[in-house]
Amino acid sequence: MNKIYFLLLAVSFTSCVPAIRYVGESLPPTKKVDVYVARESIKQPFEFIGKGYLNNLVVHANPETIQKKAILMARQKGADAVLITDQYVLRSAAFGTNSIDSIGKAGLSFSRADPTTEMNIFFIKYNK
Predict the structure, then answer these.
(1) What is the pLDDT of residues 84-120, one digit of tens each?
(2) Of 77, 91, 103, 124, which is least packed with CB atoms within 10 Å of its CB?
(3) How are beta strands 106-111 and 34-36 bridged, if at all?
(4) Exposed, middle or buried, 122 (CB in 10 Å: 0-12/13-18/19+)?
């Protein structure tokens, strides 16, 4: 019985850990990876070789953890740098709906906008 509780506890902790899904080229691994938070900060010519996506389940992930995971993935995929940006996103629109219940009472319900930020992770290869 204790094994089942331990397994459930382990699953609940790991389900909230941010994971990065990668789409792009895979080149020979690199050792040093630069980190940027603004495109304007990159002073040398470069090209994007891939993009990273976070799990949809991760709502309030620690940015430092995401950065560490992005650097690790950049090394594995052969990137020289990562560009991590964020943007303000509304997850749902605000609206109202009218309804009438079974005894004829009218009602009005609302859904509110849910503002959040979304991280973008770009993997960069410097042009030599």
Answers:
(1) 998 666 555 545 555 555 555 555 555 555 556 678 8
(2) 103
(3) unpaired
(4) buried
Whole-number Å distance between alpha carbons of 76 and 82: 12
Distance CA 35, CA 124 (A): 10
The partner residues of 48 in beta bridges, in order of sequence, read 124
The first and second tokens of residue 122, run together, are: 């770009």
User: End-to-end CA distance of the chain, in Å?
Assistant: 59
- Per-residue HEC secondary structure of the chain comes to CHHHHHHHHHHHHHCCCCCEEEEECCCCCCCCCEEECCHHHCCCCEEEEEEEEECCCCCCCCHHHHHHHHHHHHHHHCCCEEEEEEEEEECCCCEEEEEECCCCCEEEEEECCCEEEEEEEEEEEECC
37-82 residue pLDDT tens: 999 999 999 999 999 998 765 556 788 988 999 999 999 999 999 9
CA distance 83 to 51: 9
